[in-house]
Specification:
mainly beta; single chain; 3-stranded antiparallel beta sheet; 57 residues
Length: 57
């Protein structure tokens, strides 16, 4: 999965897809800066690997 966030929009891509499978417009917090977090619900076990965060210059 690849997630691209620009301003208040987020686009989610699966595999090597050229088109996003989900687009979220006008995210609730607005245009803010900050960190990146991974979250899962209580009582779940999750595994993450090969995580890369690449800021756009």
């Amino acid at each position: 999965m690849r997630i691209v966030v620009k301003d208040t929009d987020a686009s989610l891509f699966i595999g090597a897809a050229d088109q996003p499978c989900l687009v979220v417009h006008a995210m609730k917090l607005g245009d803010v800066s900050g960190g990146v977090a991974l979250w899962s619900g209580p009582g779940t076990v999750d595994y993450f690997r090969s995580l890369t965060i690449t800021p756009e210059n």
